[in-house]
Amino acid sequence: MKRSLTLLFLAFALALPLYAQAPPAVVSSYSLPREETLFQVSSLSALLNGNYDGWTTFADLKKHGDFGIGTFNALDGEMVQVDGQIYQVRSDGKVYPVTDTALTPFAVTTYFYPRLTRVIAVVLPDLPALEKAIDALRLPGLPCAVKITGSFDYLKTRSVPAQSKPYPRLVEVVKTQPTFEFTNVTGVMVGFWLPRDFVGLNVTGYHLHFLTADRTGGGHLLEAKPRQITVELEPLRQFQLILPEEIGGAAGGNVAEETTKVEN
Ligand code: ZN
Predict the structure, then answer these.
(1) How far is the CA of 220 from the centre of ligand 1 (A)?
(2) How high is the pLDDT of residue 25?
(3) End-to-end distance of the chain based on CA atoms, in angstroms?
């Protein structure tokens, strides 16, 4: 008898857990305006581990913001959202329109409402100089949406090719990333600065994507030499993170180390 009870217990313990329905949502009155909210689909660590299957439609993403960056199902390129429009910079360097039914595995958006605008009319020699200039303008410690519009003597970007299963880790994918160079170009940079609190959740520091003014080129920003730019900043005090129901992939690796590798 005792043995059969033990077996019964083991059978329950080994069975796949069945989750009950989520509890009804609690309505809280403490919520900041949508303009101060960073809305994020999935986490960077999930993406680093190869969770590239899209699960959120761009129609849904657009309900949470008009300004953002991300990627596409199967990691098919770099996403730039500006003035509500979503663009796909694929690994051929070209820009494609995005349908509302397309899916993303990882994206960040907000309603862009700049709280500070500054014109920088001197040539900045490189991306670190640009980042330093923005450091002096943004509120320290707070996540910040960054929009930079203007002309650039030089820019270097990258995109990533669509992946097939079994998905490799992101650090492997970026080893063969195609890069693109632009000289004397006008356009817009879209992205965010995030504090170290976001390690594992998102890219910390600056993460910018570029789109040419004629919307024919762009990508994840690697190098920049701005000539004349307008910087617009929006501090973000609220963070909303939505995770997929399943996070798989090859876990492991040092998140902070791998983040640096995939960003440069
Ligand atoms: Zn990027």
Answers:
(1) 4
(2) 65
(3) 63
The rounded Å distance from CA 210 to ligand 1 centre is: 9
Q: Distance between CA atoms of 210 and 186, rounded to whole angstroms?
A: 10
The mean pLDDT value for 8-23 works out to 65
DSSP assignment of 112-158: ---SEEEEE-S---SHHHHHHHHHTTSPTTS-EEEEEEEEEEEEEEE
Indicate if the pLDDT at residue 8 is higher than 60: no
**For the whole prediction, is pTM greater than 0.85?**
yes
Distance 137 CA to ligand 1 centre (A): 22
Give the start-to-end residue ranges of the domains of the chain. 34-243+256-263
**pLDDT (mean) for 73-90:** 98
Distance 69 CA to ligand 1 centre (A): 7
In terms of pLDDT, which residue wins out, 187 or 5?
A: 187
**Residue 117: count of CB within 10 angstroms of its CB:** 12
Lowest pLDDT segment from 21-35, 51-65, 199-213: 21-35
Q: How far is the CA of 121 from the centre of ligand 1 (A)?
A: 26
User: Domain 34-243+256-263: which topology?
Assistant: 60s Ribosomal Protein L30; Chain: A; (3.30.1330)
